[in-house]
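W.,

You were right to be curious about this one. When I first looked at the sequence I had no strong expectations either way, so I just let the prediction run and decided to look at it fresh. Below is the sequence, 505 residues in total, followed by the output.
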Amino acid sequence: MARAINHEILLARNVQSLSFFPLLRAYGLAYVSTTAPRLLKLLLLLYRKKSARGNIFASIYSVLAGSFAVRRFPTFCAALVGGYTFLQWLLRLLFDYASIPSMGRKVPSKRLRNASHAASRFLAAVISAWFSLDLLNYKAIAKVDRKKSKQAAQDQQRHVVNDTGPTLQTAKILDSKISQASPPVLAGKTVDLTLLTVTRALDSLVVNLCRRSHPSLANTASASSTLTAISRYADTFVFALSSGTVMWAWFYLPDRLPRAYNKWIGEAAQVDHRLIDVLRKAHAGEFIYGEDTGQAHILQGMCSDYGWPLAWGDPVKTTPIPCEIVHMGTGPSCHWHAAVRFSRAFQFALATNLPLQLLVKARNPSFRAFRRACEEAVRSSAFLGAFVGLFYYGVCLSRTRLGPRIFSRETITPMMWDSGLCVGTGCVLCGWSTLIEAEKRRMELALFVAPRALATLFPRDYNANHFWKEKAAFSLSTAVLFTLAHEDSSRVRGVLGRLIHLVLQ
């Protein structure tokens, strides 16, 4: 009788905690985040090209309606959060009910209740994330041309029939040939999302572990100087390492980066594609100093456009290629070129940062808010300017200014510098520009770039038979984030912690 009464009490308490608001909030936020950028882009296009209004309005309708599809990101977020909310309620009810007999009391202790609630959150998130990820990977894409594969199979069939006749052995050969010709089923559509989740989960685990092991880190006055320096500059180091990895991939492994990321880096770098082509060929061993490999025409085209001697672009006649080619018309000075690069990137970033900052601060307009918006926009733009400037300055320092003075030509040849070492030096230097940013901003930048750097270590498409591994990584990482942020938003750093806490409440 007492157990039945206690069960009724627990059931009533858990029913009150079940809510559909987390699901609705998740769907609404995901829908806005998905449609708003594309909608803004189309509205700007509508303002500029009034003659094509019909097509633009059709695109706007497609964006607004397409996001309501079942297998889109908003539905995925709703399924993830909705499944988590319901399963958490169900598991919490089961855990609370199972704990009553063992306690011998009317209600479980607070400690046991907290442990069961944490366990229910973790398990609910694992199960919900496991099945929700299928919504975004419902159709694996084969990168092989299916039409060509089918035609190849038919050609093989005709060849075998003509040679051997329609025997049983022929049928076996045909089956093996056609199976070899069919393209593999590939997965990987959600790799970026999974790596983002894994990175944030690892960051949260490490940070919370450090907070427990070294509580003095919260108070810089009592913490040791070594621990303070590590906690203060850890994000800077992570960003420098991650951004350097991304820049290296942009030069030599562009297929490992998303198409939009490649495009944005190219726009910010403002570099002649022929110079990038030569650096890639040098890295691949196709552009060699002192040898005629048939690649001289690439840089000689630049020499013609900029009015330089054609011999500068010929690797047989000029070793190494002058830095003035790398400067692309800014003159022979490497220092001046770095300053020009800083200025160009600063202007490029300011054109985006300033309007965004003013738009954010427009919610509470005041002179102080306007001044703060300008300061933050200038600071972020200076960061990007320094990033680009340091990269190009690192290239020049290593290949002509400082590198040859430290290492002789016999130790490190000009070919070795231009085949990767000069780009590597730029990759090492550029990320430290994040020191210009505020400490909180450095944290956000590090957490933003780290998953992109991690993605360069994995193929963007893989055999669908291994999709369960990605699901396991995503499910466990989501469970860590949901369990920590649901209880306390500060346990997951940055905006993500506050966002998860807001949605799940």
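Here's what jumped out at me. The longest strand covers residues 186-187. And, maybe more interesting for your project: Confidence is low (pLDDT under 50) at residues 141-153.

Coffee later to discuss?

I.
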